[in-house]
Amino acid sequence: MVLSGPSGVGKSTVVRALRSRHPDVWVSVSATTRFPRPAETDGVHYRFVSEERFDQMVAGGELLEWATFAGNRYGTPRQPVLDHLASGSAVLLEIDLQGARQVRAAVPGARLVFLTPPTWDELVRRLTRRGTEPPEVIEARLATAREELAAEPEFDLTLVNTSVEDVVSRLISLLRNL
Ligand code: 5GP
Question: Which fold has domain 2-176?
């Protein structure tokens, strides 16, 4: 299952809540060239890698999908996903729209879920409030978010992020019924 949606919509908050309440669901750990934010741990939230290492992963076919987002590269290591699918466990990827499209093309049967904000203003508020990014990065993310919102019809299902609890329970019931 893929969880996607615009930057700042709250995907990572939802995934954090889901992980702590449902440790049986395996959540893919992406590789990224972005620098860690405070409170992010290497190997838990992301694998933080150099540009050179990311190049190697791309060249070696190690990534199931990858994309450049706001100047940094992000990708899903392929083998752990295949291993967990083979063992029958529920697998969740939290990735951007470009990655969701690649998964749809590469993985027959993948279920694509779009997380959307209750309103545009709410998304702007969330992106601005995080306070960890400079204004030009926020602007770039808002521009991307506008495009991403238009992609909603490409997804199998939309969840409105009014409450983290509700989104987590909807995702869990969807994962159990895959
Ligand atoms: P952030 O820098 O805020 O953690 O993530 C920025 C964007 O990259 C988010 O939309 C997030 O979902 C996306 N992202 C995180 N990991 C991956 C990945 O492995 N592949 C792709 N395509 N996008 C990712």
Answer: Rossmann fold (3.40.50)
